[in-house]
């Protein structure tokens, strides 16, 4: 394949105009000893048809949500994506445009991102959102750096142990070179104990990082926790699930100073973990410490409303080593998808998605816990995801489900958790039938391995009925 | 023909009571979160999102899209950005079942096809770089820089060396110093030589046993190959430092020369530039890095490796002394996929031809323009060149910005202006290989025409775009960063 235009005749004319004999002459500025002098050792070129056949063959070695039933969670969820989201994101005027530095030729993207910022504010209750970060993990680290600049405290950051372990690992990496202590508050009960958190935070702490629903699916006592942070002059960073805000209190209402999230649930396919959408929103007074691009409204020379990249003096291309972040490329196209998604679902739709996911997850938890050998790992309220404790081990549970076409997990062992804990996530996409089938699949496995049917051990989380 | 009503703000189009997406009734015991979760956690009302219909949404965004210039609609000679054609087959293949629908926590045996692709991608990127160890994890070029600098830091720490400085020329992309600062280094900016190249005397003066890394874009931001790159690399290596190649300009040298062959120890790719990931109006990108063997143990995990006993089996591993994670899951896989499809369809010869035509096109356009827009540095350029409007500025008060803005009226996207700073009134032009001779000629003709126009016409340009020049000062003075209800 090739996407080239120049015919041999045209090349000759072009070289004549340039005044050289050959294209090779143009490369003479590269010292001869550094020129490769051979072809790169790459696989042979494929035509479009061959490529498609090749990729189809490789795709067939994978099992995705199209061929299997997905109860997987851990920060990435199989939520429904309306067709209109794909239709909008497939407009190549959007997806083949560059960063909107030339405002006059980029009003489409700029306005869409201004709408995105507004929608994220409406969803979170926060005052201001940027135009996206890489994903939910780095968004936490960016928020931590932001808090350090705002509080001028650079020595200590406190995170809850229930924060997504990969987000914790990223924060460790990001903080590794600047001598800042990353203190992790253990959460053995599935959520943080405010009294323990209060012990961990002191007057040198820049921020407290809370995730809710947390990695285990449990809801944290966010209001109590943000108060503790504020009592010590620290900022409260809340990592949220955007879908949960269809029914749960907003980060703003719970006292967050900076709210961050993985925005994948808002219309982005799972695509093996990326590209995703990092969300960050904050209170007005912190806007000049915000990382990444911000779109602002202004007027053109004729007084007409228009949109521009705003407050660019925070960014690397102006401020260089003093920038609020090194981020340049963001996740524009995924921000557009989220804008389309939130427009399509609206206030009622997102409430429906949240209610359905929550109800179905609770149904699945109840049904699974009716099986002897399975129980809730934590006695805490949860939203759409929960941690099961499996008598026969998480791997065994995952394997039984997998055999019947159901994907559950991840197990917590790879993250340093107990080997009998596993996550199960349920979205609006899962039907009662699929849940019942999953339950049957793991039940028959359990009974087979338990040598007879034991009396169902039912442990339903408390505090669920109000 | 413009539908201005449909491009009102989404929030002004909304009417309470309108719906688009509607979800099914609950088929389980409960229908509402309020039956499952204690009241103290619940919001009093739904979020205040706009209420619109699906036709509203489609017409709104479709009309908005027409207010953009894009690679699919216009010539986009934006220097340092490599705005080449984005093949459509990539979009379809990246969305295939078994590719686009994979959850990152599926078990490895359900991912063998995906891991095979990633493994092959690592191998291809290593070969193109001439550097054997690759991490696909970084989400964009800037994160690639940051990651590589952490790798360098870990390497030096392991050797018991305390190196604190990162050096870069003043023509470096802003991300270089920003990434170095984030990685905890002291940033040292070198003055460029008068010829736009690295000044060896200046470099020597700053190199010492505190030097960790010298970051350099090669070809540089003037579109010139640093011909003294060997001496530069030797000098850096002599003091025990490492050479980082910012791969933003890789499109000029694919299969011609390799960063690993001209002294680079580490580099990043911008898959969204060189290997056709669509820019998406700002992202997503992907910024995989390649490093020398002695740095491989420090790369972030996971890395895909192939089983020695069964070449069809792949596993994910984390290197022994890994710096840790820089991103959740496995990087911007969807963009890496597009890069993979591109490399597989071009092959070695196709890649080299792409670079050759990119360089040919740039030199042809330079030749067409040089008499009206002088190019102060270099004889022949690589894939881009930097012209200067300073004569026009002095003689007629016409700025680089004026020319850029007026080009929009004629249906050309503006080049990058005022970067790099080493050229006054810089106009940075990168045509890429996916443009025809006729397009280049039309562009050059238009520049000539523009230069002949009254200065006043240019100062007020653009005249035909959806909006004229925005008031940036007003935007910054009292930032309006979101719509608010007047209620």
Describe the structure.
The complex is a heterodimer of chains A (466) and B (487). Chain A has helices at residues 8-18, 23-26, 48-59, 83-89, 92-95, 107-124, 136-151, 165-175, 194-200, 222-231, 316-319, 332-369, 394-403, 432-450; strands at 69-72, 128-129, 156-160, 181-185, 205-212, 235-240, 258-262, 278-282, 294-299, 305-310, 374-376, 385-390, 406-409, 421-425. By secondary structure, chain A is of the alpha/beta class. Chain A has two domains: 83-341, Aspartate Aminotransferase, domain 2; 346-450, Alpha-Beta Complex (Aspartate Aminotransferase, domain 1), CATH 3.90.1150.10. In chain A, the strands form four sheets. A seven-stranded mixed sheet of chain A has the order 2-8-7-6-5-3-4, sandwiched between helices. The longest helix of chain A has 38 residues, at 332-369. Chain A starts with 7 loop residues before the first helix and ends in a 16-residue tail after the last helix. Chain B is α/β, with parallel strands linked by helices and 487 residues long. Chain B has helices at residues 10-13, 54-65, 88-94, 112-129, 141-158, 175-182, 200-206, 229-238, 271-274, 333-369, 390-396, 400-409, 437-451, 455-459, 472-477, and strands spanning 133-135, 165-169, 186-190, 211-217, 242-246, 266-268, 289-291, 303-306, 314-317, 385-388, 416-417, 426-429. Chain B has a seven-stranded mixed sheet with strand order 1-7-6-5-4-2-3, sandwiched between helices. In chain B, strands 10-12-11 form a three-stranded antiparallel sheet, covered by helices on one side. Chain B has a two-stranded antiparallel sheet with strand order 8-9. In chain B, helix 3 (88-94) packs antiparallel against helix 10 (333-369) and helix 5 (141-158) packs across helix 6. The two termini of chain B are 33 Å apart. The relative contact order of chain B is 0.13. At the A-B interface, helix 1, helix 2, helix 3, helix 4 and helix 5 of A face helix 2, helix 3, helix 4, helix 5 and helix 6 of B.
